Target: Aldo/keto reductase
Amino acid sequence: MNSRPLGDTGISVSEIGLGAWQLANPDWGIHDRAAALRIIDRSLDAGCTFFDTAPAYAAHGRGLSEELLGQALKHVRQKVVICTKFGRSPEGSTNFDTSAIRPSLEGSLRRLQTDYVDILLLHSPPRELMDGRCSSQYAELEKLKTEGKLRVYGVSLDWRVDAETVVETTRSKALEVLYNVFHQEPGGAFPAAKERGVGLIAKVPLDSGWLSGRYRRDAEFTDVRRRWSPEVLARRTALVERLAALLPPGTSMTHAALQYILAQPQVSTVIPGAKSVEQALDNFAAANARLAPETVDAIRALWQRELKDDPLPW
Model:
């Protein structure tokens, strides 16, 4: 798989990484640890070098996603890039206090079986904590970086204004941004991030499965996606159908959705999740091709026409 630079950090990452939220996570209706380990192993075989996790990607308060990655990656630790987060605990509580950063990171390091993480992100913090002019968290992150416990820090966020605030007011070098065909609003901050040498990680690239093309308005969910109303399901269905009409014959919607993100030159890596080995390998295969410029333009126009001024709830 091709690699891209993570901003100007000197770190290279595979174009498509593995989002580890679903690994053996009951919130997604998944419980099989052995299957999760197989997904990680086969991801390595496919050339994946970027793995995204968090303490809150848990099972019964255990931080199981980090544990599984620690078990599977310890033999290749120097060859992979691990991103984890701070602010949301394995037990489900939220604590962004500056004094809690070090204990949280130490817990992650134990579970990951490593003495450093490549990237540590504030995990969708309140908006006021994204302003480095009035938030002490970033000074603590700098201290941990100096100590060698992390290489790069930043924020996981959803909106352009937040990305611009972090880029302009902190020394963050990584942003994990909600960005996909249906949610392109943060793309307005990409040039500023590029100018400051900030690496961009695209999260939720398949809109929690909708951009795989598998779901329609009669879909029923028993996992975290049950939050969507019938009206939201109907709107997503209509948008999926309009997107499908824009794709060249033989192009899967999953591949098109990932390739659209990779068509944005400022993006460093894309992190779809996977419930199975087959799903993970199909995600990685998207990196083997590129969308034609006219298809990229048509997808951009779909968002501008249908979603720019009336975004979908996630």
Q: What stands out?
A: The two ends are 30 Å apart (CA to CA). The first helix runs from residue 33 to 45. The domain at 3-212+255-289 is CATH 3.20.20.100 (TIM Barrel).
